[in-house]
């Protein structure tokens, strides 16, 4: 009589329960966000469809009767124009530099706000003040700060080798770009700190204490415990700020008006639509900007490779 090995019965009771609970939570989440998604689609879908439609025409408001269907010629014009690629480079440079600096400073602020014991509410409120200021107002303030005639930057920092009392911050490309990026970093670093603080509060103190008991230094705890457990929060913070920085407009409009080759893609779109009244070309730029934002978001999500479900605690 032959015998065969018998496998023990699998305990499948826990997994379906967890799976059913996860599905129920997902269904509830879809129901909760559905009204907001529908409203956003109603508000944004029509302008995007209209922009896509207008981008297929040679159309200027100064000659509305001369509208002519030209297919994808506007897109060809945009993608083959050196001005578009120069402004794209400016936009990417501003995005990369500002987000990188904000990530470092914002994380330091988050650590301070997380660890401080006395006057915690006052400290958090003080750090968040710049983010509460309207962007146009902060841009005017920094334009004044970098002013050659009555700004304080040259007077306060002329001890640095690259800053003199007569430094004209808006007289050439790189100085102007630096001033724009400083104003952007000052304004939005608190937002980055707030998002990172939310992620930092999710790091288990037990894990940090266990690592310290095992002899891990502060740097080892940072790189091996804190940052890996904050990956989801870091991704959200970088994603939000990168998309916002990629669409930068206010600072450039107030501080330089695009002078010294400091235009961004958003500012170029503004000039085509509002100043030159070229609705067809401007609409093509708007569509390209929209698609590039989607591509940027996809790249950031793929780069971090974060499973938000597992980060939320679903196994």
TrEMBL record:
<dbReference type="Pfam" id="PF00528">
    <property type="entry name" value="BPD_transp_1"/>
</dbReference>
<feature type="transmembrane region" description="Helical">
    <location>
        <begin position="28"/>
        <end position="49"/>
    </location>
</feature>
<keyword id="KW-1133">Transmembrane helix</keyword>
<feature type="domain" description="ABC transmembrane type-1">
    <location>
        <begin position="88"/>
        <end position="300"/>
    </location>
</feature>
<feature type="region of interest" description="Disordered">
    <location>
        <begin position="1"/>
        <end position="20"/>
    </location>
</feature>
<feature type="transmembrane region" description="Helical">
    <location>
        <begin position="176"/>
        <end position="198"/>
    </location>
</feature>
<keyword id="KW-0813">Transport</keyword>
<feature type="transmembrane region" description="Helical">
    <location>
        <begin position="125"/>
        <end position="146"/>
    </location>
</feature>
<dbReference type="InterPro" id="IPR000515">
    <property type="entry name" value="MetI-like"/>
</dbReference>
<keyword id="KW-0472">Membrane</keyword>
<feature type="transmembrane region" description="Helical">
    <location>
        <begin position="92"/>
        <end position="113"/>
    </location>
</feature>
<comment type="similarity">
    <text>Belongs to the binding-protein-dependent transport system permease family.</text>
</comment>
<protein>
    <submittedName>
        <fullName>Sugar ABC transporter permease</fullName>
    </submittedName>
</protein>
<keyword id="KW-1003">Cell membrane</keyword>
<keyword id="KW-0812">Transmembrane</keyword>
<dbReference type="InterPro" id="IPR035906">
    <property type="entry name" value="MetI-like_sf"/>
</dbReference>
<feature type="transmembrane region" description="Helical">
    <location>
        <begin position="279"/>
        <end position="301"/>
    </location>
</feature>
């Amino acid at each position: 009589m032959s015998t065969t090995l018998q496998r023990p019965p699998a305990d499948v009771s826990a997994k379906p329960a967890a799976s059913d609970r996860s599905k129920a939570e997902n269904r509830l989440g879809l129901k909760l966000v559905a009204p907001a998604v529908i409203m956003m689609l109603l508000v944004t879908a029509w302008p995007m469809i209209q922009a896509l439609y207008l981008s297929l025409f040679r159309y200027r408001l100064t000659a509305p009767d001369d509208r002519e269907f030209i297919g994808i010629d506007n897109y060809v014009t945009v993608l083959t124009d050196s001005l578009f690629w120069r402004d794209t480079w400016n936009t990417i440079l501003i995005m990369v530099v500002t987000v990188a600096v904000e990530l470092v400073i914002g994380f330091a602020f988050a650590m301070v706000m997380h660890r401080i014991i006395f006057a915690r509410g006052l400290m958090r409120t003080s750090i968040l003040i710049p983010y509460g200021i309207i962007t146009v107002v902060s841009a005017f303030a920094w334009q004044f700060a970098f002013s050659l005639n009555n700004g304080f930057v040259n007077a306060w920092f002329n001890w640095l080798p690259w800053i003199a009392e007569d430094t004209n911050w808006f007289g050439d490309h790189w100085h102007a770009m630096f001033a724009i990026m400083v104003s952007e970093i000052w304004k939005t670093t608190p937002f980055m700190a707030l998002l990172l603080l939310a992620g930092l509060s999710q790091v288990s103190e037990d894990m940090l204490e266990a690592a310290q008991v095992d002899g891990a230094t502060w740097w080892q705890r940072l790189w091996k415990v804190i940052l890996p457990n904050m990956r989801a929060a870091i991704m959200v913070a970088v994603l939000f700020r990168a998309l916002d920085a990629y669409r930068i407009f206010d600072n450039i409009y107030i501080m330089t008006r695009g002078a010294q080759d400091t235009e961004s893609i958003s500012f170029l779109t503004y000039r085509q639509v509002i100043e030159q009244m070229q609705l067809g070309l401007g609409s093509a730029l708007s569509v390209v900007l929209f698609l590039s934002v989607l591509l940027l978001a996809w790249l950031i999500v793929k780069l971090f490779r974060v499973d938000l479900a597992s980060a939320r605690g679903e196994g």
